[in-house]
Design a protein that fits this description.
Distance between the termini: 35 Å
Radius of gyration: 21 Å
Shape: elongated
Mean pLDDT: 85
Largest sheet: 2 strands, antiparallel
Structural class: mainly alpha
Strand order of the largest sheet: 1-2
Number of helices: 9
Order of helices and strands: HHHHHHHHHEE
């Protein structure tokens, strides 16, 4: 009884998390196969997944154009990744490059969510994201938004969203908080996340279930 089948593991864990678990050990070294290790890999995969989905979440808001990803790669990160893989497939070190990129993008996501803006130039964020996606694909790591429980894509035009935000602002100023909450909830049902700013303004973005 001291074994688990691949079918059982795939039913219990995200396949990408299992792939990440294997990659976190250099191929010549044994892997300590434990439930705790797999759960830690699941948490690590969430960090990478959030970075990999940064582009679909914010490309429109940041006004990204559509150049070839190869023209948008961070040469320093690519060189570090290549050096690690050339060193007898040192995948743990190669993964550390991916995690650095993913954590940087997570910080930028938090700023965009909370402030609606970031001090980092859009082209720099595009380069970081393209680099993360490109290097992750080398290791077979790809992310898709979760289908189960994901909000339906919004059918509202930006002008319609802005109009409803103005109506909500007017309701708040009139201290009609029930109406303001109704508008927020109605937009949330259309996959629109409202982000209230300290100066009283409100930003929005299309939400996405991670």
């Amino acid at each position: 009884g001291n074994f688990r089948t691949a079918r059982e593991l795939m039913a219990q864990y995200d396949p990408m998390a299992f792939r990440l678990f294997v990659l976190q050990a250099q191929y010549r070294k044994p892997i300590d196969f434990t439930a705790e290790g797999l759960e830690a890999a699941e948490n690590s995969w969430k960090t990478l997944k959030e970075g990999l989905l940064f582009g679909p979440s914010f490309a429109e808001k940041l006004g990204w154009s559509e150049p070839s990803p190869e023209q948008q790669l961070d040469a320093e990160a690519v060189n570090r990744f290549r050096a690690a893989m050339d060193d007898d497939f040192n995948s743990p070190v190669a993964l550390s490059v991916l995690f650095e990129l993913a954590k940087d993008l997570r910080r930028e996501r938090n700023l965009l969510d909370n402030r609606g803006t970031t001090d980092t130039a859009p082209e720099v964020l595009a380069r970081q994201w393209h680099t993360l996606v490109h290097l992750a694909q080398v290791l077979g790591l790809e992310a898709q938004p979760d289908a189960e429980g994901a909000p339906a894509p919004t059918s509202l035009a930006p002008a319609e969203i802005e109009l409803q935000i103005q109506q909500r602002q007017a309701a708040r100023q009139a201290r009609n908080f029930a109406e303001a909450d109704r508008i927020r909830n109605e937009l949330a049902a259309q996959s629109i996340l409202l982000i209230d700013q300290p100066d009283g303004s409100t930003h929005w973005r299309a939400s996405q279930n991670l």
